[in-house]
Hints:
With about 400 residues, the chain is an alpha/beta fold. About 30% of the residues lie in helices and about 30% in strands.
Amino acid sequence: MTSTTGTTGDLAVGMVGYAFMGAAHSQAWRNAPRFFDLPLHPRMAALAGRDADRVSAAADRLGWDSTETSWQALVDRDDIDLIDVCTPGDTHAEIAIAALRAGKHVLCEKPLANSVEEAEAMVLAAEEAAVHGVRAMVGFTYRRVPAIALARQLVAEGRLGTIHHVRAQYLQDWIVDPQAPMSWRLDKSKAGSGALGDIGAHIIDLAHFITGDSIRRVSGRLHTFVGERPLPAEHSGLSGTAGTGTGTVTVDDAAVFLAEFRGGAMGVFEATRFANGRKNAIRIEVNGSAGSLAFDFEDMNLLHFFDGTEVAATAGFRRILVTEPEHPYMGAWWPAGHLIGYEHGFTHQVVDLVNDIAAGNDPTPSFADGLRVQRVLAAVETSSDTDSWQEIKP
């Protein structure tokens, strides 16, 4: 098993899945080489899906050269260098491991898997593949928001001093209506968990990324507000139309937990899909001995920074518009003050992955980073079930 990718030429991409995340990833593969100077040219070689008519229509719409009706056929193709996994979590491990063993680089959507055991197997496969130059990345895309990347820089430079507090929320409302229909995200066998894994995983990863630290132990609660929902007549992305009959919701609608970090910081986390009026509010604030920072994705081009070393008479939170060419990723986009959006994080993800593949570097977030998040998710679920604090393996 050896990667066929060279340091020049094309990087032939095959993607599995073409719904919400598949569309976002497709745009990223199209846009990245048009705005960034990349050492390899991503080529959208093939799209895989189970329904031949639907995958063909999606390939035409999204810009893929060819189609397959099984992921196995995609992995078996000699002309594919990288497999992009945009499927529900119950299939991540099988697809990613097979692709890595076939010598294909892998980009896998988050959360990495549906269990710690699956994630551990994926990490082992990634480590074995890396010996042969095959790379693997998990898609925690919000790391690539320029304001978040700037927040990480400020912490790494010591501008916040010793970190004392992390408070993080991910708030959505797309299933607050009890008549919103069932989807795979509400089925534990496919999704692994509900708000906890779907959106809570993001704020766990962001806390790890921004602080450079990891969570040591947690105490949490999970809750399901609506236990039965209409079966869907049709479903697309996060919306759908109710049909006849009902299905049982087997995941959490909301998750809250307290956390202690290995470096001594305290954390408070909340993930819910029942925060009426909140569409995609990812809020994170970090307080340290020398300063603080705060971010909200619903105003994603801004970072708020407090420099605690300034004199009290003029000290205050500073509103930083993260659109300057000096800011992470922004030099490839528009003049200062011209804002970017949700889709740009996916483009930045592609840029970093392609650069790492060409340079022979292991990309981040790695599958090991995804496993760290998976262990936190599992610990929160166990804590809720047993009313206990749960320690997390490093």
